Amino acid sequence: MTPPRTYSNFINGEWVAAASGRTFENVNPANRNDLIGYFPKSGPEDVDAAISAAKRAYKSWKNTPPPKRGEILYRAATMLQESEERFAEAMTREMGKVLEEARGDVQEAIDMTFYMAGEGRRLFGQTTTSELPNKFCMTVRSSLGVCGLITPWNFPMAIPSWKIMPALICGNTVVLKPATDTPLSSYNLVQILEEAGLPRGVVNLVTGNGSDVGNPLLTHTDVRALSFTGSTEIGRKVSQACAASFKHCCLEMGGKNVIMVLDDANLDLAVEGALWGGFGTTGQRCTATSRVVVQNGVYKDFVDRFVERTRALKVGNGLDSTVQVGPLVNEAQRQTVESYVEIGKNEGAKLLCGGQRLSGGEYDMGWYYAPTIFGECDPKMRIAQEEIFGPVVSVIRCDSLDNAIEIGNDIAYGLSSSLYTRNVNSAFTAMREMETGIFYVNAPTIGAETHLPFGGTKQTGNGHREAATAALDFYSEWKSIYVDFSDKLQRAQIDT
Ligand code: UN1
């Protein structure tokens, strides 16, 4: 174990302590005696300094040719590859997800960085016609300015990269505020960007909590765009705060994602999918499968196999390569899970496995909870409607494809959904009817790739998408350009 270290903010190209000198602790959720380090407990004055630095740096970064910006990102991506194992281990230690998944998280950051590096030579606009002779029309993407980025703990390197990389390639500068549970992975990412040659002030990192660091980012008039990933409850406040100064605002919020299993499904595959979608990352993904809707003909068979496989999952410290499910990120998250399990029991759902904290031995040192399945859930129960963000799956019966779609869509969220079937007509019907931003056929609700748009409908988002070229639409705005080479005044709509 590396001994605890004191880490810094990154402001204007310098590694600095919080102005107040205060720090907070970053602790391993698998072992509360393992103190990873102390991070700056920053306040509004640190945020101000970071925003001013970002504003100064913006002047030259916005006019740096995008392929040159891309070269820096490309270098950062190769450096991330070289450090993948070290960063994955650091991530498992601060967040708890098993090492294989932490590697996937770093890999997702690498993918996004390469992808956006390539955009440096594209950032395509349109050329088009004019209604007037000797006139040329085109569109170009313009950068916005300083972007504030607020990221969650569940994908501690991937999600910061989803926001930083498109922001930078479009010519913006950024201030990143990572979740207090996982500042180290952001620190590692930002350090790579520095080493890759990013000019001072282009990326700034300020650690600390929502009220001291997040709020000033939301209200500062020099921040032109704000991207937030987190709960719907906080997202609403973010949106309201941004409205006051008309900041562009991108929200990625809650999910209550469903796998639908029809009678004609490959049942082994569906069980495998539910297991991975439900309990991967200990259920702490926005995309996690927290509902499984199963057609009556295979309900019993599916549930028997799903419960048997879930009971056999090995829970423990994610650094142990035989472990399949790590701890929850912190005690508050475990209490949320516990309270939902109580709610489920009181609502009359059938507890099929799990339903308790794990204790004894190493379990007493961390935030462990047994993977839990509720059967015979009514679709209206709170455990089938509200985001739990933990290892709890609610299984619901349905009698047809239409019924499955109806239950699947009868929810406040709209991130991801999936259908297991061997019938192509059913697959295409569900693909059309599901009200989610992401849809899978014969695969679980998790596993989005970086070159496709990521985001959801209803209370999951506010219409923007991350990743892919869709992200460029958030981090830039269109400028329409008309060049008249007729040498006379031509009046649109009038000189016909
Ligand atoms: C999240 O849960 O916040 O599709 C992001 C997935 C991952 C990203 C999840 N690639 O599950």
Short description:
Helix content is 39%, strand content 22%.
What is the CATH third-level topology name of the largest domain?
Aldehyde Dehydrogenase, Chain A, domain 1
* CATH superfamily membership of the largest domain: Aldehyde Dehydrogenase, Chain A, domain 1
Distance between the termini: 76 Å
Low-pLDDT ranges: none
What does this structure look like?
The protein has 496 residues and is α/β, with parallel strands linked by helices. It folds into 2 domains: 5-253 and 461-480, Aldehyde Dehydrogenase, Chain A, domain 1 (3-Layer(aba) Sandwich); 257-441, Aldehyde Dehydrogenase, Chain A, domain 2 (3-Layer(aba) Sandwich). The chain has helices spanning 44-61, 66-82, 84-95, 99-119, 158-169, 183-195, 210-219, 232-244, 267-279, 296-311, 331-347, 382-385, 401-409, 424-433, 470-475; strands at residues 5-6, 9-11, 14-16, 23-28, 31-40, 127-128, 135-142, 146-150, 173-177, 203-205, 223-229, 248-252, 257-261, 289-295, 350-353, 372-377, 392-398, 413-414, 416-420, 438-441, 457-458, 477-484. The strands form 6 sheets. A 7-stranded mixed β-sheet has the order 15-16-17-14-13-19-20, sandwiched between helices. The chain has a 5-stranded parallel β-sheet with strand order 10-9-8-11-12, with helices on both faces. Strands 1-5-4 form a 3-stranded mixed β-sheet, covered by helices on one side. Helix 14 links the parallel strand 19 and strand 20. Helix 1 crosses helix 7 (210-219) and helix 4 runs parallel beside helix 5 (158-169). The longest helix has 21 residues, at 99-119. The mean pLDDT is 98. Bound molecules: 2-aminohexanedioic acid. The site of 2-aminohexanedioic acid has 9 residues, from loops.
